[in-house]
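Step 1: inspect the first sequence and its tokens.
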Amino acid sequence: MTPENLLILAMGLPLIGVGLVFLFGKLPNVREAASLTIAIALFGITCLLASHVFAGGRPEWHIGEMIPGFEIAFTVEPLGMLFALVASGLWILTTVYAAGYMRGNHESHQTRFFACFAAAIFAALAAAFSANLFTLFVAYEIMTISTYPLVTHHGTREARNGGRVYLGILLSTSVAFFMFAIAWTSNIAGTLDFRLGGILAEPLADGKITETQLGVLLGLFAFGIGKAALMPFHRWLPAAMVAPTPVSALLHAVAVVKVGVFSVLKVAVFIFGIDLLRTTSVSIWLAYVAAGTLVTASLVAMTKDSLKARLAYSTISQLAYISLGAALATPASVIGGGMHIAMHAVGKITLFFCAGAIYVATHKKKISQMQGLGRQMPFTFAAFLIASLSIIGLPPGGGVWSKWFLAVGTVETQHYLLTAALMISSLLNIAYLIPIPIRAFMAPQETTADPHAAPAGIQEAPWMCVVPLCLTAALSIVLFFTAGSIYEVLLPLVSSQ
């Protein structure tokens, strides 16, 4: 099969998955088997496609122009390929986990849930493989709309309010800022195509845009891509925590937020070009905004007793690392930002899997209620500890490498306040993550109403919840030893600039 056909098949499989989920909606076992089969097939096809891309190929698929100059087209390059591998690979484990969670909690509307899940994966792949800004914008909006029913899944007043904040912020920022940035870029550059090295250096040299205007344009992109959750456009992310935990895992690790930071990194590398950003210094303000976001969100996370709320603000902080890497625009920082897409995805999905498993097994949501639970749920809390080490940036978690390259980027640019921000944030990561497994393993367990009751023993969540979180925790360690491969994948993004 040719690489182009593999690309078309990869794009089509999630849509086939949507159809199969609705077709077998009244047969839960068949429905979920179909979802899992499509997820496995997609990952296999994506791996085959990756073998061509990493060997230097760039498969393309041009569907056609909607209006002159605005084409739907796809091209696979290394950064998008890495994102696609992460999204398709984690979809397999999330599908298994979601089946266990949704059944364990006796959730309603499960057919709609799995259909929207598949649609969100389609949007993630469409963004990953987008050949131009217009295609990226369309994929970005499909992602927002397809995940709205997931955020409001429970149908409660709280869920509807959370959904309104989610939809309101993401749609308003994309229409007010992102769309305008695309139109401005098309006007001055005459193209929206992603090109390694960027497309804005020539308009700057020709006087079609000044350096000050270039900084404004970057701001429109950075804040227009609201899914990157830069402050002050971050409130949608904590608001979306009303969704079921598998949705939170999708939002924070597999698709939604990763589409945001992937888009920021893609714009920096393929629209502005890292040479242009570095020589003009128009992106340094964005680096400090990202640094402020990653420290402030970490401080807020420390105040949250709700486990999902704490993880939500942790995600805001961790996403800012990737925006920081894009803004610094050095080879090390761009590679660090690209690495962090994969490292954070695996670590954070593990943490949300653990939060969901704790809720399924004990119906506890608050950290203050989790003392002693580690002896009841040792696999879950051991996985939580491993993933926390990766998020913090400590061995043997893979996150140590992405943070290392980001720190190198701050030193190379001699912005030592940014270096300090990275170090402070990592210390805050320790402060809000490590006490959770310590409380679970070391603190006395809450006594039961009956003083003569036997010890609870090991009472983990259903295996369909526990096995995925154990595998993703193990993958965090694997990434520590295989980070060199990710480095080689991302090197073409910076080697020719």
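Step 2: inspect the second sequence and its tokens, then contrast the two.
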Amino acid sequence: MVTNSNSDYPLAPVQFSRLAKRGIMLGLSLPQLIVLGIAVLTVVFALYTAGGMGFAWTTPIWGTCALLAVIPAGGRKVIEWVPILARWAARTYLGQLVYRRRVIKPRPAGTLALPGDAASLREWEDPETGAAMIHDPHAQTLTAILGVSHPAFVLLDLGEQQRRVSGWGRVLAAACRSGRIARIQVSERTLPDSGTGLAEWWRTHSTDDGSWAATTYAELIDRAGPAGERHATTISLALDMKAAARQISTSGGGIRGAAAVLRQEMSTLTTALRAAELTSTGWLTPGEVAVVLRSAYDPAAAPALERHGDLGRDLATAGPVAVTETWDRLRSDSAHHAVLWITEWPRSQVYPGFLAPLVLSNGILRTLALHYTPVRADQAARDLRKKKTELISDAAQRRKIGQIDDAASSAELDDVLQQEADLTAGHGVLRVSGLVSVSAPTVDELDAAVAAVEQAAIQASCETRRLVGQQAQSFTAAALPLCRPV
């Protein structure tokens, strides 16, 4: 995706780059090349040592390798499933699919009570801003989470929509120029509403005169409030501690120095959001982050946590009590979850509100997470030159062996050329990944909700695929605003 700060009116369409499906050679991936190489070596060895009989006797070997390389299954070639299945088998054997919290044994101080590889995350409370900063010692990142409120985009007029889109483009362009940002995650989630917002509005605007109308409205709000749902949006900012090593050392080193550098990026982000007319509700404190984490794993407890502001505010106990992962879903405390990957964004030009069918879906507990990975201008230029060279070389190689160029390869080359032109014009380059986490109380309700989300994605001109063999890791990346990779 290329950020654009054009503010011309009326509303301008946008276009995403296609998902690269180019292999290492002739469109073949590394596993395919390996098994095809084994097949070719087997045939050559058999012919040189035993002639035609050796060729016949080794047919099961080279034939199986060839079939593994070319037969598709579930959107991949069969051989590409081997690493996934091997990792799943290893995790099953090691008992890593089931997590149960050790109630008696306390967690180490400063750690988050999360399952899997997220158990290594550390908490740091910034003394100046009071924000909770999450340190990932393995990925060497430090993450802060900002709450954001915004008007309904689809209700704005076209000129105002274009102005907002241009402002958001400037926010992303600023992240690309920084060079110290590892990832930006935008999470838009639906939550069970406890009714506190509706009750607060009634207390502020009502006239409680004891009349029949006032009494009826009050009773209706008390009953209908907890049955509703609300939307919440956060923007997570992850500092790349390796890229910012010099600035961190200058600021005192360690987590304290990294926090000082991250505060600079936080200030830049809030300033850019104000220019884009997005209202920040403040950087999330440890207690607020704890509520977000607990609500993700235990949606049934979310209304109670919101009603009682002092409960569930400890990060050390905010994780799940139990998690069980299966091949295509995850079960936690009070819900079943499934994560979908947006494999294809719209291939044709669309207007910025194209995700409205997915964002405005009703009656479904889901989280839409967009992960933006900024790419420095010099690195982006190198990557684009390399990709362009490989595409042109593959096209020349196909012509030599008599293959005809397909439309997908030509369209991918056009995307690369367009990105190169936009980069030369001064725009930033971002890699965008989309994940949708869907939650429901039962398996049947989960399957129905997933089907509804898939249908909404089709209406938004997107293609989704249900992730398998990695639901636990995908859930932490999709449902938790911690800038976790998949």
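Step 3: confirm your contrast with the notes below.
Residues 95-203+214-479 form one domain. The first helix runs from residue 30 to 57.
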